[in-house]
Specification:
It contains eleven helices and 15 strands. It is α/β, with parallel strands linked by helices and 303 residues long. It has two domains: 213 residues, P-loop containing nucleotide triphosphate hydrolases (Rossmann fold, 3-Layer(aba) Sandwich); 63 residues, Alpha-Beta Plaits (2-Layer Sandwich), CATH 3.30.70. It has a six-stranded mixed beta sheet, with helices on both faces. Strands 1, 2, 3, 5 and 6 form a five-stranded antiparallel beta sheet that branches. It has a four-stranded antiparallel beta sheet with strand order 13-14-12-15, with helices on one face. Helix 6 links the parallel strand 8 and strand 9. Helix 3 packs across helix 4, helix 4 packs across helix 5 and helix 5 packs parallel to helix 6. The protein is elongated and about 75 Å long.
């Protein structure tokens, strides 16, 4: 079962399709990383999925029911852009007030449980305006969790956080995913961090879904290579082709060779050294999510 399914989803502003015929499939129980450059349509898509804006065309289904179904909408918690907090109220009161507004039973009890889950129990009486950015993000997540959602939609939840705040929020997400089985549909610019927790990815460019892939499938698609730092790289690769029958490689510069589908560093070093080439270094380079994304986008840019 999918937690989110969209069919030819479109959102037009003026003459521009910000989201264009989007067909998403977010499996139930996934941590789905939604990736794209600034202005690619990530936030708009998330707002469409949450029902915060209406689609120009197409459909959204949550847990195989239409978005218009009141019961299924109650299964969704959201943290889009910045959490809506009252700065002069305590963290606890912010959560309690949200509990009353959505009609949860025993709002104070639920609020205390939510704050404990996100690690803010000790800051419960602290005013929201005195919380750090990371604590505010976790408070927003506590509010989003109040209705015991099965799906959490998070828009750049770690944006602007310091390293400690990023780790804390990641740990909260991991706990909610593991212990409560919550599905996450989250965007992030920090691809290295996202790759630590995501089980699936969707990559969007100019409102169009470029690729949708599981983390396992992505691992098999990555272009890992053996880096060889050597003088006279063009002459070196000619020698390696002749003696080792190499088929796939790239000469990046006169001092760098990349060998694909080959990882015998000992043999490479032996052949080159025996023929008077100066080998500076040899190591296996594993392509990460950021490199894969940039290659798919056609060059360096903001995610």
């Amino acid at each position: 079962m999918n937690a989110i399914t969209t069919h030819d989803l479109c959102k037009k502003y003026g003459n521009k399709n910000v989201v264009n015929n989007l067909n998403l499939e977010v499996p139930k129980g996934a941590i789905y990383g939604f990736i794209g450059r600034n202005g690619a349509g990530k936030s708009t898509t998330q707002k469409l999925v949450c029902g915060l804006i209406n689609a120009s065309e197409g459909e959204v289904s949550l847990f195989e029911k239409p978005l218009t179904d009141v019961d299924v909408r109650s299964k969704v918690g959201t943290l889009i852009e910045q959490p809506g907090l009252y700065p002069g109220m305590s963290a606890l009161d912010n959560v309690i007030m949200q509990g009353y507004s959505i009609g949860v039973d025993d709002p104070k009890k639920k609020a205390l449980e939510a704050l404990d889950t996100v690690g803010l129990s000790k800051a419960a009486k602290k005013k929201a305006k005195h919380l750090s950015l990371g604590m505010k993000q976790r408070l927003g997540l506590a509010i989003a969790m109040l209705g015991d959602p099965e799906l959490l939609v998070l828009d750049e939840p770690i944006n602007g956080l310091d390293p400690e705040g990023i780790v804390q929020l990641r740990q909260v997400i991991e706990v909610l995913h593991r212990d409560k089985g919550i599905t996450f549909f989250m965007s992030s610019h920090i691809l290295g961090e996202l790759s630590k927790i995501a089980t699936h990815y969707g990559i969007i460019k100019d409102g169009v879904l470029v690729e949708q892939v599981s983390a396992v499938e992505l691992a098999s698609k990555r272009k890992d290579y053996l880096y060889v730092g050597v003088n006279n790289a063009h002459q070196a690769i000619a020698l390696l082709k002749e003696q080792l029958d190499l088929k796939t490689f790239e000469v990046v510069s006169d001092s760098e060779i990349r060998l694909f589908n080959y990882n015998d560093t000992k043999t490479i070093n032996k052949v080159l050294s025996a023929n008077d080439f100066d080998v500076a270094e040899i190591f296996l380079h594993q392509q990460d999510l950021e490199e894969y994304f940039l290659e798919l986008m056609g060059g360096n840019s903001n995610a």
